């Protein structure tokens, strides 16, 4: 499998499932999700600046981040709670775009090592209604996610080159 | 509608939806969900003792409670995180039975006043897979919930009688 985002959202389901491989070990991939200073630098879509208001990536910790275009403009705020954080393995968290109040999704992110120092991220978004899922998909969620993971790969490659 | 639990779980869906009315205002119904000392006394099924390890019912708060039969025996532990708590109106939280690790559900509880000092609870459980939902339903979840709400009604009636 190439390092591309593979996303599936079967008709009539509340789920969005996705898989993405990376040329780094699972520990580095996990760290890029758990460390707010790293997370801020890759989370998509491209071209947005991300400010972290809170990011306490442990069981029961909360997060909130705000995105805006580099030319200013509208802000987009997101918040949630970490239910489970198991280092290098699993994050289960809630996720809400504050512009759609009370539309909360449950997000699973599983991290696993692959041979050759590579890793796989397997994600599942569980939406609270069919309408919520369709609305998310219609925002261009898939391309925003793909851009974010490409930025993550670039960030980790740049860090490796500086070692 | 009578004060009975009405639960729907359509085939092939990840949702369990339910409605239950109560002979008390929404503020009292909410308090019975938000106050650990009250919650402990009604949460079903009947015949179990509930111990609260944590119950911080506010945005970003966590909870954990443990149930066991009055004759001792096995313990059943549950934990989660409160994503949104809006007084007398809405709770959105995660929920996990620790015996089924990483099977996390998202729970919506909406509280609203009805005429005549009554109220309605409207709940939605969002399950992370079809298997998870079927497993929960197969435990007798519906009768356990119904027993809990009956106990809640008895508890609130007893409190009202002592005023």
TrEMBL record, chains A, B:
Pfam families: AHSA1 (PF08327)
InterPro entries: ASHA1/2-like_C, START-like_dom_sf
Domain of life: Bacteria
Domain Activator of Hsp90 ATPase homologue 1/2-like C-terminal: 23-156
Classification via Gene3D superfamilies: 3.30.530.20
Family: Belongs to the AHA1 family.
Name of the featured protein: ATPase
